[in-house]
Amino acid sequence: MDLAARTAPVLVFLVAITVVADIADRAGMFRVIAHQAARWARGRVALLWLLLAILAALAAVLLSLDTAAVLVTPVVIAVARRLRVRPAAFAWTTVWLANTGSLLLPVSNLTNLIALGRLRLDVLAYLRLAWAPALTVVLVTLGVAWLSFRGSLRGAGELEPERAEPVPSEGLLRVCLVVSVLLVPALAAGLDVALVAGAAALVLVLAALLLAPDILSPRMVPWPMVLGAAALFAVVGGLHALGALDWLVGLAGDGTSLPALLRLAATGALAANVVNNLPAYLALEPAATGPVRTIALLIGVNVGPVITPWGSLATLLWARRARAGGVSVSWPRYAVRGLLLAIIAVPAGVTAAWLASRL
How far is CA 257 from CA 97, 253, 304, in A? Predict the structure, then answer.
């Protein structure tokens, strides 16, 4: 019953926020924002890359990492091509920030929501724990991405004239923008996240019915993802009940010293890259005794799984969108670059969390 009570709101949120993001995408919101960024950049490749990176990070923070991977990736590729520059740097930065940017808010990642329910913290208390490591890992990600792709981010490109791509409804676009802006204070105010996301989804569905009914589809509801997450909750809960995961919990150690927190985060990152971030968090949750250890584990399972393609679902979804946009995805290259990012970002994030906890 405790597992069901904790996971039901998480699954409701997953459905609602996916519907919100999908309607916003079909209404053209991400495309409009990205093209505005291109106009602001005025052909400067580095500035455009930075503006689109901010868009990807905000999408991950407010609408979850999967949303950032699925909806922002094709937009940044299209805008990069409009500037006549190679889109690989833009696409890779997006997938990295989708993962590493999913720490700041409870809604940014399902693992955060589950942890919040277990600790019984409000959103503001979670923010006090997460802001320092979240900011740190995003800055580290931007730094690693810049060093990795700096050769293709220099100079200025020639901005092609914007193709006429009418949005389904200007009114619906405005509603999506208003709802997205209002989500920020609503999600940070300590309100029930499932209720907030559900209300936002209801508003957008009603607006779409009135202004652009053709964009609505039953496929907006992510039933496979919901059923898969529910099955994972049940399986890992059963394994814990049988004691089959005690060895892994023991491997994570205990304590709140910096070495102890690094050990926990490293165990989480390793497990996430082996089996995926959600089951890794659930398997190691008993080792997260207290808020500081919980945020260390979240750093490991949120920021760490950037090495294997199955480390997070967002990466697999990103690869499909990137290849569809003509960007080559080499998994060996992804693993090497991701390993570098993880080795730097995970310890940096844990250190920031440890320092913040001592203030």
Answer: 28, 11, 20
**Which of 58, 311, 291 is CA-nearest to residue 180?**
58
- Residue-range domain boundaries for the chain: 2-214+223-357
Distances (CA, A) of 56 to 24, 95, 109, 238, 333: 15, 8, 14, 36, 22
- Neighbouring-strand partners of residue 44: 156
Cα 96 to chain centroid distance, Å, stands at 9
Residue 136: count other Cβ atoms within 10 Å of its Cβ: 23
- pLDDT mean by block of 10 residues, the chain; 359 residues: 65 81 85 82 86 91 83 85 84 94 88 83 84 96 94 71 69 90 75 83 93 85 70 68 74 92 96 88 89 95 93 86 86 94 97 92
Give the angle subtended at the CA of 192 by the CAs of 188 and 195, to the nearest 5°. 115
Distance CA 101, CA 97 (A): 5
**Residue 168 buriedness (CB in 10 A; 0-12 / 13-18 / 19+):** middle
